[in-house]
Amino acid sequence: LAKTTQPISMDSYExxxxxxxxxxxxxATNDYITWYQQFPSQGPRFIIQGYKTKVxxxxxSLFIPADRKSSTLSLPRVxxxxxxxxxxxVVDTSGTYKYIFGTGTRLKVLA
Amino acid sequence: xxxxxxxxKYLFRKEGQNVTLSCEQNLNHDAMYWYRQxxxxxxxxxxxxxxxxxxxxxxxxxxxxxxxxxxxxxxLTVTSAQKNxxxxxxxxxxxxxxxxxxxxxxxxxxxxx
Lengths: 111, 113
Description:
The complex is a heterodimer. Helices cover 0% and strands 53% of the residues of chain A. Chain A is mainly beta. In chain A, the strands form 2 sheets. In chain A, strands 2, 4, 5, 9, 10 and 11 form a 6-stranded mixed sheet that branches. A 5-stranded antiparallel sheet of chain A has the order 1-3-8-7-6, with no helix packed on it. In chain A, a hairpin with a 5-residue loop joins β7 and β8. Chain A is globular and about 45 Å long. The N and C termini of chain A lie far apart (40 Å). The mean pLDDT of chain A is 91. By secondary structure, chain B is mainly beta. In chain B, strands 2, 4, 5, 6, 9, 10 and 11 form a 7-stranded mixed sheet that branches. A 4-stranded antiparallel sheet of chain B has the order 1-3-8-7, with no helix packed on it. Chain B is globular, with a radius of gyration of 13 Å. Chains A and B meet through β5 and β9 of A and β9 and β10 of B.
């Protein structure tokens, strides 16, 4: 089974760039790595998704090295409203298309 | 707009009662999932279904039951056998066989009174 590891928590100040890394092994070689944001008492919200190298959208960037054993979510110039829990989601290599969630990183943005 | 609807948003259950949480999606997704989230914790998989009339146990299925009679619907019943049911329950769906990730509902908070 795939295993994932994320830092439990991170603090940052407004306006800074934040990078959150998810380590994952035994993941499917041909499937996306997806990141979600979750606020208290809400369902996780899709942030960004990538397969390899670098992907950028209007809210974040995602960096995936060639070996795909990790992925890094980058949030540019965070604000107080970015305080949330961030999860990575990968696909297990077993062929059953079983999704594996990361352990979650609690980001606190300080004024 | 396509999406997933969970109802009710809040649910209270007395000890010994069964309750059913509703999950409906109009995304035409084949696969649907139920997760449980306890305060300050991550998501744990209860049950999932990849096609109609078929479902599999996840990591914490004891005390729960599901059905998948229609593609759009995947209700979860929390039975009296579930000893600690107070939690936040999330339903999700995905395209089967393609790793595009989940679309989540907004969740149901179940409290035992």
